[in-house]
Amino acid sequence: MSIAKVIEVIAEGETIEAAINNAVEEASKSVRKIKSVYVENINAKVDDGKVTPEAQRIVAGRLLAKGGFNINSTSVEAWIAVLSAAKKKRPVTMPGGSSLKAQAPGEHVVSRNPNPVLAADSEDSRWLGYRELTDAQIRELAVAIVQQVKKRGPFRSLGEFVNRRLTTDPEMALYGAIQAALEDPSVTINADYRGAGKEIIAADIDGTNYEFPEAALGSRYQGTPVYINQADILTPIAPIIQARSDTFVVRGYGEALSSDGTRVLARAWCEAVVQRVPDYLDPTTDSAEVALDDLQSPANRTFGRRFHIQSFRWLQEAEVS
User: Where are the alpha helices (DSSP H) in 125-185?
Assistant: First the structure.
């Protein structure tokens, strides 16, 4: 008979590896023969009651991300799903700095403060409250983000996605991808805080010597909780976004031609879901944690890590046309 026990431990450390090891040591006081640990969205193997001190070097062979979202996605519906994480959330306010009070479930709640003082329906809430976005505004933002992904991507890191580009192109140098999407005229999220009398214009900074004057322009409400910025959007989704994927949808097409090559006799479409795993193609020669430059197997040097086919199906023409 096999017995598995799950316990939760909170631990600290100067590095993630140190924190994990401290958690394992604490858990070992009540549980023996620990085989693995789960740290938020990360799995790590345990050997002899210790997480290897070289974890930062062999991470590809030890870790798998669960439920990550690829920022290079060009699916509007996928971005809507991710951006809707706070739909029907119940904001908790602290009116007058006194006791906490749960508000009615909102639409898409965006709050820069964990416990705002006011709700979203007063002029003072510009500084002390929160915002609620509509389904239509979330869709507008998703469409604009996809446009930015197509324009700027593929992103090789989260840094490329979040930060502005160090370039002479003013459009790329002014904002990161999400902020650029928020500033898109077709996105109405901040429309009430833009326009005549609400923006800093070139005349307002006349006489200054800014290296990049375009960065000084924009809404006078930027920085207030009511003006949604990139950080507000990133905060709830930061734990799940990543710049690469381990699971892919691959589609293929084939056709059979007549003997003279002039007519198509048959066509076929297929779709496979494949997942990359830590093991190399030839796991008997090289273990999963071996660095690329140290690989011994020619097959592993050529093809890298193994892919597993998770599902396969034939498609109808209507599904791809």
Answer: 125-128, 135-152, 158-162, 170-174, 177-182
